[in-house]
């Protein structure tokens, strides 16, 4: 049965989408069957793994709101073992349309649960908000990864996010765990970057992943080619970091691949 991991932080530009697509691709390269669900109307994960959001048939929107067939909505990517449920700008309207639906917080869970057995990992990229779609993602998830940018105000908003997670644990999803806090866009030359790493580690201790994602231009270039970094430049620092993260997560979950 697959593990569902949401990538969430209501702050924009902290590396959620970069983490979703590159972690998913790295898990796939490690031969874990992986599904990435794009739950952001901006659809950057969708285009980042090579699909044009304008020309897709069904998105997570149709699956959640119109009960489209989930298996038929899944599309393959060029990376072996990596599938996608795409997003579409229509998802913007979903929050309003869902207001009157019964169990409106559980629509994504109903979608993910249908295909959970087909995958080792399901990674959900969230939008920069704590709205209903993100609540759906956290209700569907077994755990959450919180990317934190090694920048000014890194911890800003984190209290609110952790509080939201607590409320969801109490009311909607008692099994929701924190997989880890992920430090992103680290620049070894900047004192500030090092200060943030130290501050976050002091504050959150072993909740923080050992792997730190460096600022690396290949991570920002690869999406314009519709590729995760590992398929664009597998030896780049960014690609290697996300592969390390995938290994760390596999190990933490007791399913690391043993080299033969
Ligand atoms: P979010 O999904 O949280 O809004 P993104 O993953 O889209 O954040 O990242 C914001 C911007 O920063 C994007 O242009 C992305 O390409 C870039 N970016 C993210 N992580 C890195 C990194 N480690 N190194 C360089 N650029 C990055
Ligand atoms: Mg994003």
Automatic annotation (TrEMBL):
Residues 3-178 form the AAA domain. Transmembrane segments: none annotated. It holds the Pfam family AAA_31. This is AAA family ATPase. Signal peptide: none annotated. InterPro entries: AAA_dom, DNA_Partitioning_ATPase, P-loop_NTPase.
